[in-house]
Amino acid sequence: MEAVKLTEDVYWVGAIDWNVRNFHGYLTQRGSTYNAYLIVDEKITLIDTVKENHTEEMLQRIAKVIDPAKIDYIISNHVEMDHSGGLPALKEVATEAQIVTSAKGKAGLEMHYQQDWDYQIVDNGDSLDLGQRSLSFALTPMVHWPDNMVSYLPSEKILFGNDAFGQHFADWHRFDDQLPYEILIEEAKKYFANIVLPYGRQVMKALEALSGLEIEMIAPSHGVIWRTYIQEIIEEYQKWASNETEEKAVIVYDSMWGSTEKLAQAVYSAFDAQGIKATVMSLNDNHISDIMTEVIEAEYICVGSPTLNNGLFPTVASFLTYLKGLAPQDRVGLAFGSYGWGGQSVKQVEKVFTECGFELLDSVKAQYIPTADDLESITNKLKGEL
């Protein structure tokens, strides 16, 4: 378990989770990493820890550089247990280490671990003297928890970005220029869409606050470290955080006997005829976190459900709950679906769209099995609205 040098006396000492495939509802097909960073100075400093079951891996990497018992400061940028889970075991080794965190971070750690640890509370603009270097701190509340903050090492121009700029991505390479750029951006987009999207306004404030820093490396809490594509990932974050969309549609549906699937194809034909890019995604075949990766840049969100009993098909209900929680803004919604006698599902999709603040196109419904004429009529009607 080797440490990886970022710059002289600064190391990645985190853990690689090759096998994780579900991160509280988010499908992580490429695994993840839990990134911790070691700064060797007069005061030995560790920035964050790892998920509890990967603590030994982190300790082995630290031990390749220094004795973990010599750690003076543990910076806790974020309370969530994939960042702080290694703290109890680490504190048993580094008994004299002081935990440096925000006020909300201290409250969260106390509630999580019920330990009487030694804390130093920092606020916006505070600095911590490490000897030859210093760390400065900026609070970034609700990106994506109230306790979040980032740390900055001015001497090396490294931003320890916490959950910002991360990706769930396991690989033995540690830097962005060692891997295909397209894959990294796709994973960063998926991460933003499924975790950070509801907090776009707070992200914009954080980006503004950090804009004055000279940054030569961004070291996030998950995934690879950015050292080459820094401007590119910052520009992508600005776009995603501002809810900037493309003229593009995502058509999401599930179907009992194929009728709603036929409607999905009729909806697709309307967008296609108007030259608008559209992606059709069955909930039976696509995970909701992968669908959200498409939704993040789409102007049109189309959701179709058959009526089951008097409500939504369960997979569609689950997706709509997930969508509403992630709160994409300034979108156009289209509800569609088939039914046998009640037909309540379409109105229920529209209700969620209204709660999300979407502009609505006229809904599309068909009883039992739509004919070829029905489908053509639906396509032509929708073409007229686009």
Please, could you describe this protein's structure?
It is a single chain. The chain has two domains: about 5-240, Metallo-beta-lactamase, Chain A, CATH 3.60.15.10; about 245-385, Flavodoxin domain (Rossmann fold, 3-Layer(aba) Sandwich). It is about 35% helix and about 25% strand. The chain has helices spanning about 55-65, 80-85, 85-95, 105-115, 180-195, 200-210, 230-240, 260-275, 290-295, 315-325, 345-355, 370-385, and strands at about 5, 10, 15, 20-25, 25, 30-35, 35-40, 45, 75, 100, 120, 125-130, 135-140, 150-155, 160, 215-220, 245-255, 275-280, 300-305, 305-310, 310, 330-340, 360, 365. The strands form six sheets. The protein has a seven-stranded mixed β-sheet with strand order 1-2-7-8-9-10-11. Strands 17, 18, 19, 22, 23 and 24 form a six-stranded parallel β-sheet that branches. Strand 22 (about 330-340), helix 11 and strand 23 (about 360) form a beta-alpha-beta unit. The longest helix has 16 residues, at about 180-195.
Offer a few descriptive terms.
Metallo-beta-lactamase, Chain A; 34% helix; elongated; 386 residues; 25% strand; 12 helices; 2 domains; seven-stranded mixed sheet; six-stranded parallel sheet; alpha/beta; Rossmann fold
Can I get a quick summary?
With 386 residues, the protein is of the alpha/beta class.
Largest sheet: 7 strands, mixed
Residue ranges: pLDDT <50 for 5 or more in a row? none
* Terminal residue distance: 56 Å
Q: Under CATH, the topology of the largest domain is which?
A: Metallo-beta-lactamase, Chain A
User: How many individual domains?
Assistant: 2
Q: What is the averaged pLDDT score?
A: 95
**In what order do the strands lie side by side in the largest sheet?**
1-2-7-8-9-10-11
Name of the CATH superfamily of the largest domain? Ribonuclease Z/Hydroxyacylglutathione hydrolase-like
Radius of gyration: 24 Å
CATH class of the largest domain: Alpha Beta
Query: What CATH architecture of the largest domain would you give?
Result: 4-Layer Sandwich
Which of globular, elongated, flat, extended, rod-shaped describes the shape?
elongated
- The amount of helix comes to 25-40%
Q: SS-based structural class?
A: alpha/beta
How many helices does DSSP assign? 12
Question: Strand share of the residues?
Answer: 15-25%
Number of strands: 24
